[in-house]
Amino acid sequence: MKKVSESTVARLSVYLRLLSERESEGVEMMSSGELAKLAGATAAQVRKDLSAFGTFGKRGLGYPVAELSGVLRSILGLERHWRVALVGAGRIGMALLGYQDFRRQGFPIVSAFDADRTKVGQRRHGVTIRADAEMERALVEEAIEIVIVAVPVEVAQEVVDRVVRSGVRAILNFAPTKIEVPAGVALKNVNMALELEALSYALSAGRRGRRWAAGARA
Amino acid sequence: MKKVSESTVARLSVYLRLLSERESEGVEMMSSGELAKLAGATAAQVRKDLSAFGTFGKRGLGYPVAELSGVLRSILGLERHWRVALVGAGRIGMALLGYQDFRRQGFPIVSAFDADRTKVGQRRHGVTIRADAEMERALVEEAIEIVIVAVPVEVAQEVVDRVVRSGVRAILNFAPTKIEVPAGVALKNVNMALELEALSYALSAGRRGRRWAAGARA
DNA sequence: GATTGTGAATTATTTCACAGCT
DNA sequence: AGCTGTGAAATAATTCACAATC
After folding, report:
1. Option in A13, A187, A198 nearest B197 (CB)
2. Residue A91 has what DSSP assignment?
3. Do A49 and A110 share a structural domain?
4. 3-class SS at A147?
5. Is residue A97 domain-shared with residue A158, that is, in the same domain?
6. Strand C nucleotides below 7 A of a protein CB?
7. Which protein residue has its CA closest to C1' of C1?
8. N or C: which terminus of chain B carries fewer CB neighbours within 10 A?
9. Quick check: is B215 in a domain?
């Protein structure tokens, strides 16, 4: 089994989305070229990405759409649901709580916590917000597997440390700050400020007449 | 002027945040090593990143914090405010409207649009939501420079096309789909589903005993 | 003595190109 | 004939290592 880069994993998600669409349209086979075109990649890249996990295509024909969807779903661990908890029920947290797509895609938010007394006890989208102090116990008892951290920058690292100590091994962080996690814990960041700044750079660099990469990391 | 990769630009944002913090604490000089440690990079990388834009350090001493902050702010185009509009006032869009940090960081959302009749006319966080049909004209008249697209996947490309035709050259897309923009238009994506799937992959791969990159793209 | 700036070396990622199936 | 799977080649990103400078 080869080592797999983060960009490869990101592309697999994209491929899966496209394959699922086509599958529901009744398409049965798809070539690496077609898939690449839709995904904004090259045919060779599609094949290399897949080749890290096995050989799924039929030479001369392409890939069986339904089968490959299944394989990708399995590789990405999307055949099951993951129990997700939310820490921090501010504006972003609340919006995520209401975002039904997460549930549909296999990431139901089953618990939510906040340090703000006035928020505790409120029920939102089927989840009752509980006190921050109850977090550790609940994460363990409810077998939470992924935690979404949407707390202010100042407390983000501290909250992550507590989450990690509770045995959670996957964290999605929305706080715009560098978070440290021990090896064996997966961390992903969503940093909107960073993306806006990259746009600001592109606009400024453009005006200065410098060429820049119009980034398309999906 | 060397070409600058997207990851370099992302790191510049991180450096700037750290430098600003230290600056407010009264720190005057900082070495590439210190900065790297805080940023989760290497000293050489910090120096390489900066060297693409000029030479700002003093050998034997490090970098003057205040000066370098200023330089980075200038490089990233953060010395000015950018006029931002929001298209799509659903859960995510509304949350972004209320997110005061954007305003504070120089990205005030000055206009918002939605196709939903019932939302039009509502005032939220100082911005009145207007009809989708008014978008093109408003983007031009109000000299909007960055548009945040938070509409459903099905209409995202279409909305982006309209935005681009209105002369906007920077787009932050929240719809989890591949968006095409012409050269000269900067596009950044925030795709929470993708990040969750990467976490799912990491958890699954971990269980399978495969090593994986616990990605820390900030 | 410490730290920068930067070519050279290394490592990672992407693309090429073609033998091998269907 | 068409398309995959994959080594080899090309390109990109990162790290090394050291002369230059403060």
Report:
1. A13
2. H
3. no
4. strand
5. yes
6. 1-7, 12-17, 20-22
7. B60
8. N
9. no
In a domain, B112, yes or no: yes
Asked if residue B169 and residue B92 are part of one domain, the reply reads yes
Nucleic acid strand D: bases within 7 A of protein CB: 1-7, 12-17, 20-22
Domain harbouring A94, CATH code:
3.40.50.720
Does A139 share its domain with A55? Answer: no
What total of structural domains would you count in chain A? Answer: 2
From the CA of A9 to the C1' of C8: give the distance in Å.
Answer: 32
- Dihedral sign, CA of B37, B42, B43, B49? negative
Q: How far is C-alpha B92 from the chain's CA centre? A: 16
Query: Would you call A217 and B95 a contact, using CB atoms and an 8 Å cutoff?
Result: no
**B125 and B25 in a common domain:** no
pTM for the structure as a whole: 0.94
A-B contacts at Cβ under 8 angstroms: 233
Q: Per-residue pLDDT for chain A (218 aa), expressed as one digit of tens each?
A: 678 999 999 999 999 999 999 999 999 999 999 999 999 999 999 999 999 999 999 999 999 999 999 999 999 999 999 999 999 999 999 999 998 889 999 999 999 999 999 999 999 999 999 999 999 999 999 999 999 999 999 999 999 999 999 999 999 999 999 999 999 999 999 999 999 999 999 999 887 765 444 443 33
CB contact under 8 A, B211 and A3: yes
Parent domain of B148: 84-193
Please check whether residue A152 lies inside any domain of the structure.
yes
Closest residue to D16 by CA to C1' distance?
Answer: B44
